[in-house]
Specification:
The protein has about 220 residues and is an alpha/beta fold. The chain is built from 8 helices and 7 strands, in the order H-H-H-E-H-E-H-E-E-H-E-H-H-E-E.
Length: about 220
């Protein structure tokens, strides 16, 4: 994949945000520590979405090689490894990967800091990109999906669906302190994205929890 200029600029901004500006806040959000009401809805929504994607993968993942593309603090990677998967987990934010490694204890997960599109990562039975593509335009999501799809039988990923409710929440969110704001996302119409993918998706699901709205798709290239 040849990254577009907007894709590369957004990627660089996200690396700065997650690895420096908001590393501590993200570590707290993905823990059991008390958080604000706004962040509590996001935490609950992310927990439900993670559970949905894990259900799609199955309870017994022995023999599966899985890429957690944009692993963050590692919750999905850890859960998949506990189900028996051989997990490669990668994120551009080294500070978050450090947190994930600590939380994983002795689980045999291959933690990496870098680009999820790196061809050196190899091929996988499944690739999961939970909430790691929601910051990009539909065209860039489709291009990224095509690159990842060439290396797997099943790609599970989430987008921020373009809905009136999400637009209203973003407008309201600007009234709150900066510490309660998530990084900028790009709402995408699922129907348009599916047209860009050039084929049907196997499954879809949506999770709505207060300020968290996420739409999951499973694409089998």
């Amino acid at each position: 994949m040849m990254a577009s200029a907007p894709f590369q600029a957004r990627r660089d901004a996200l690396e700065t945000y997650f690895d420096r500006t908001a590393a501590k806040a993200w570590e707290q959000l993905t823990s059991d520590a008390p958080v604000s009401g706004i962040r509590a809805t996001v935490r609950a929504g992310r927990d439900r979405m993670r559970a949905t994607l894990l259900d799609w993968l199955g309870d017994d993942l022995r023999g599966m090689r899985l890429l957690d593309a944009g692993c963050g603090t590692g919750a999905l990677s850890i859960a998949a490894a506990e189900r028996g998967a051989e997990v490669v987990a990668i994120d551009i934010a080294g500070n978050l990967v450090d947190v994930a490694r600590r939380r994983a204890g002795g689980l045999a997960i291959e933690w990496r800091v870098g680009d999820m599109l790196d061809p050196a990562l190899g091929h996988f039975d499944a690739v999961v990109a939970m909430d790691s593509l929601i910051h990009y335009r539909a065209e860039d999501i489709a291009a990224t999906a095509a690159t990842l799809g060439a290396r797997t039988r099943s790609l599970l990923f989430t987008i921020a669906p373009r809905t009136p409710a999400l637009a209203a929440m973003h407008a309201i969110g600007k009234l709150f302190p900066r510490g309660d704001r998530s990084p900028a996302i790009e709402p995408v119409a699922p129907a348009r994205l599916k047209r860009l993918l050039g084929g049907p998706v196997a499954r879809e699901a949506r999770v709505t929890s207060g300020f968290y709205i996420s739409h999951a798709l499973e694409w089998r290239p």
